[in-house]
Amino acid sequence: MTPRGWSRAAAFAVLVLTVAQLLVATALPDLDQFEGKAFGWRLVAYPLMMLAAPALWWLSERRSARPEPVPWGAFTLVMAPFLIDVTGNSLDLYDTLVWWDDANHFVNWLLLCSGIGLLVCRRVEPRWAVVVVVTGIGALLAVGWELGEWFAFIRHGTEIDTAYEDTLGDEALGTLGGFVAALVVARRRAQ
Known about the structure:
By secondary structure, this protein is mostly helical. The chain has two domains: 1-87, no CATH class; 98-191, no CATH class. Helix content is 77%, strand content 0%. The chain has seven helices and no strands. It has helices at 3-27, 39-61, 72-90, 93-96, 100-120, 127-154, 163-190. Helix 3 runs antiparallel to helix 5 (100-120), helix 5 (100-120) packs across helix 6 and helix 6 (127-154) runs antiparallel to helix 7. The model has no long low-confidence stretch (mean pLDDT 88).
């Protein structure tokens, strides 16, 4: 199999593994690790968010006179955080490892923003603008994610008492992950 074939297979594997775990979580909502975590919403939202980047890329490239090769690696980077999140819930890591949630907000935003940066900053110049664009996208997505969590399961859940501090930390870690991703994308563009 070619490297492009491996990249395509990885993107599909990440999508399938994520949806499979979401189906299990939705079918077994009474398990402690899934209870009160809005897996019905996630079953709809996660695949849509995972497929947004490929759909937007396809829409922009289909009109191009010189279409670029499909960036499967970037798509996989965008999709991987959803798999990591669901796997963390499936293995009950959010409730058993104190640091898991914080690590996820940093690492998942690093992956997500790296993929987005590779997709949207192909023609952005100068390099410092890549850092600003990717970091800004990371910060906006961190805020949006926290608003989604609040709406889906925090506002009526058991985490309302600690949500403010956790939300601020999650937004900061997501933005920091976006910033590190921005540096990685800018450096990669320079090579």
